[in-house]
Design brief:
Keywords: Cell membrane, Membrane, Transmembrane, Transmembrane helix, Transport. This protein is mostly helical. The chain has helices at about 5-25, 35-55, 60-80, 90-105.
Amino acid sequence: MSLPQAYLCLAFAIVAEVIGTTALKAADGFTRPVPSLVTVVCYAFSFYLLSLCLKVLPTGIAYAIWSGVGIVLISTISWFVHGQRLDWPAIAGLGLIIAGVAVINLFSKSLSH
């Protein structure tokens, strides 16, 4: 797998994780079968895709991107879909997560190892 393919795989892993986490809210403590099944399937698929990325990307880098982008996307979706408003410190923290992911991708030499 090439580096661009690993990033594409990581992007799909993030999307699957975000769908799974969004469904987790709807699963209502795993009492609703369809959202519960969506959660389990999406999480399993996300971890599978993440494992494929680890053939090329360093574990810490891949996990930082996967979790960081996932946190920002879930927070954004929760704001619009579930009305879960964020205060300014939370928004600033999310901005720092985005900055951290950008620094890793733009400046880290870890990706060449």
